[in-house]
Amino acid sequence: MVTDPVCGTDVNPNDTEVQSEKDGDMYYFCSIDCREKFEMNPDQYLS
């Protein structure tokens, strides 16, 4: 399991296609909404 960086939900990376790459790292999300928020301002969620 990994943690959705936007909402903190546990996500199984093998069970989701909702993902995004930043600086060579892959991030996984529980929903498209969380991915969109992340992609608009990833540094907000990674700091």
Layout of helices and strands:
Blueprint lengths: L1 E2 L6 E2 L7 E4 L2 E4 L3 H9 L1 H5 L1
Antiparallel strand pairs: 1-2, 3-4
Describe this structure in words.
Helices cover 30% and strands 26% of the residues. With 47 residues, it is of the alpha+beta class. Strands 1-2 form a two-stranded antiparallel sheet. The protein has a two-stranded antiparallel ribbon with strand order 3-4. The mean pLDDT is 97.
User: What's the N-to-C terminus distance?
Assistant: 20 Å
Any idea what the shape is?
A: globular
Average predicted confidence as pLDDT: 97
Strand content: 25-35%
In short:
This protein has two helices and four strands, in the order ββββαα. It is an alpha+beta fold.
Annotation keywords:
single chain; 47 residues; alpha+beta; two-stranded antiparallel ribbon; 2 helices; 4 strands
